[in-house]
């Protein structure tokens, strides 16, 4: 797909990967609606001379309003980047933590697809891009909610591709390791500790930490080639193959790695 002249919606677009995707889309000639719960999205959009929407895609009402706004401002939506995401609570979390991370990292994708797919299949064209994580192929030490929802986001993207690929709907899923964003580093005024710090180090020390702009370029290159799995860190594929070739060995190795990271997080 050539994104030039296409209408795109990007969620989580106030900063990080979402802002970088919006900038890259703009540079390639797309019309973009930047969406985020953070009011800073207005400034990001203004800098790109694009439109914005401020609201919460974690709710069905928010997704409906976003897409109604997109259609009124852009026309038909050609590409949807389900990029908004959160790290979630450390460890197992409680019911409220699970409701939040499921709504943001998974149900937001489902709710958008429920409203987009009927139009796309009728037109015979449309592109859904989901931001998951290498955690969706592997796991995330320290956070059950993040790991589970990223696995689920990838599984949902697979299902969309299998189910609607022959009707003109294209799907890609982004699965990076470390990217230089707030979701990795957190709040500098409130440093991570314990399992949260171990989770951060599991990502930041596993490979290079890429800039969002480089990731965005890789995403759009993959979209133009209509590639499903986007791996900015190629080593993730080797890790995934290792996991599948001997699951028990992989689990044992991950437990050892977790123990090491917890010692580092505790200053040992």
Automatic annotation (TrEMBL):
Domain of life according to the entry: Bacteria
The keyword Membrane belongs to this UniProt entry's keyword annotation: no
Pfam family, one: adh_short
InterPro entries hit by this protein: NAD(P)-bd_dom_sf (IPR036291), Sc_DH/Rdtase_CS (IPR020904), SDR_fam (IPR002347)
CDD domains given in the database record: SDR_c
TM spans (from-to): none
Keywords per UniProt: Oxidoreductase
Family matches, as SUPFAM superfamilies: NAD(P)-binding Rossmann-fold domains (SSF51735)
MF-aspect GO terms: oxidoreductase activity
Membership in a protein family: Belongs to the short-chain dehydrogenases/reductases (SDR) family.
This protein's name: Oxidoreductase, short chain dehydrogenase/reductase family
């Amino acid at each position: 797909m050539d994104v030039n002249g296409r209408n795109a919606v990007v969620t989580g677009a106030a900063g990080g990967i979402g802002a970088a995707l919006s900038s890259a889309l703009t540079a390639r000639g797309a019309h973009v609606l930047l969406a985020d719960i953070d009011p800073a999205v207005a400034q990001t959009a203004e800098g790109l001379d694009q439109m914005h929407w401020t609201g919460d895609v974690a709710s069905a009402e928010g997704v409906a309003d976003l897409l109604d706004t997109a259609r009124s401002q852009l026309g038909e939506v050609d590409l949807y980047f389900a990029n908004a995401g959160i790290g979630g609570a450390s460890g197992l979390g409680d019911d409220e933590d699970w409701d939040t991370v499921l709504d943001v990292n998974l149900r937001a994708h489902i709710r958008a697809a429920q409203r987009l797919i009927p139009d796309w299949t009728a037109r015979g064209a449309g592109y859904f891009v989901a931001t998951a994580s290498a955690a969706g192929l592997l796991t995330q030490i320290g956070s059950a909610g993040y790991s589970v929802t990223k696995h689920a986001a990838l599984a949902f993207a697979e299902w969309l591709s299998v189910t609607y690929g022959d009707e003109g709907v294209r799907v890609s899923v982004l699965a990076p390791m470390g990217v230089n964003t707030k979701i990795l580093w957190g709040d500098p005024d409130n440093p991570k500790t314990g399992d949260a710090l171990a989770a951060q180090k599991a990502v930041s020390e596993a490979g290079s930490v890429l800039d969002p702009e480089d990731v965005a370029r890789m995403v759009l290159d993959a979209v133009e080639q209509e590639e499903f799995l986007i791996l900015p860190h190629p080593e993730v594929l080797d890790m995934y193959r290792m996991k599948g070739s001997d699951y028990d060995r992989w689990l044992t190795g991950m437990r050892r790695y977790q123990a090491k990271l917890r010692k580092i997080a505790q200053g040992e």
